[in-house]
Amino acid sequence: MEFKCEITIGDCLTALSMLVSFGVFCWQLYKSRKDHREDTRSRWFLDVVVMPNLDSITGLYDNVVKKADEFVVLLHEMYKSNEGAQDINRALAKDQRELKDLVKGTYDHFQAIVGATEVDVSKRLNKKVDDLVDLLTIYLDAYEGYEDGTSVKEKVLLNHQEVLAILYNGLNK
After folding, report:
1. 151 FRET partner, CA 20 to 30 A, in 31, 43, 64, 169?
2. Cβ distance 103 to 129 under 8 Å?
3. Is 122 within 8 Å of 76 (Cβ atoms)?
4. If you average pLDDT over every residue of the chain, what do you get?
5. What would you measure as the largest C-alpha separation in the chain, in angstroms?
6. How far apart are CA 133 and CA 103, in angstroms?
7. Helix (H, G, I), strand (E, B) or coil at 2
8. Domain residues of the chain, as ranges?
């Protein structure tokens, strides 16, 4: 009894196509699972970290705008009434410290949560918080040239939008 084993080109192509199909199936399965994990993680981050703190963040920005405008008006009035430079500088430093403490104090707890879950998002968020403190410091430093209607609100709200963009899109970048 003699066995003849003939492999044709058609058999080779069939085997190759089955191998390629299996490889594509495995790749799609891997990609689907990875996407599902990332979506679940993003959803969790939004639901557990961002959403519970959203009101306090928005409240912070509203409060900061109000306080910064009040402080700059008072500093400008001190400047116009020719109070001593030392008194003005003391009031300026106190107001800048109060705004910085308000911003940092509100973000400290939130920053700790974000930092524990997403280090990269935390770094970007920290930069925006520092930008906000710098913006407020510059605004108060310009008290001499203050005019009625001058407000820091537009720049602060732009910073607020950038913070929200980091939080909502943070895990995707």
Report:
1. 169
2. yes
3. no
4. 86
5. 118
6. 7
7. coil
8. 41-172
0.85 exceeded by pTM: no
Give the separation between CA 118 and CA 115, rounded to whole angstroms.
5
5-37 tens-digit pLDDT: 787 888 889 999 999 999 999 999 999 999 998
Three-state secondary structure string covering 95-157: HHHHHHHHHHHHHHHHHHHHHHHCHHHHHHHHHHHHHHHHHHHHHHHCHHHCCCCCCCHHHHH
In terms of phi and psi (left: phi > 0; alpha: psi -120 to 50; beta: otherwise), the region of 149 is: left
CA pair distance 109, 129, nearest whole angstrom:
13
Residues 6+ apart with CB under 8 A from 157: 61, 65
Task: Please indicate whether residue 165 or residue 151 has the higher confidence score (pLDDT).
Answer: 165
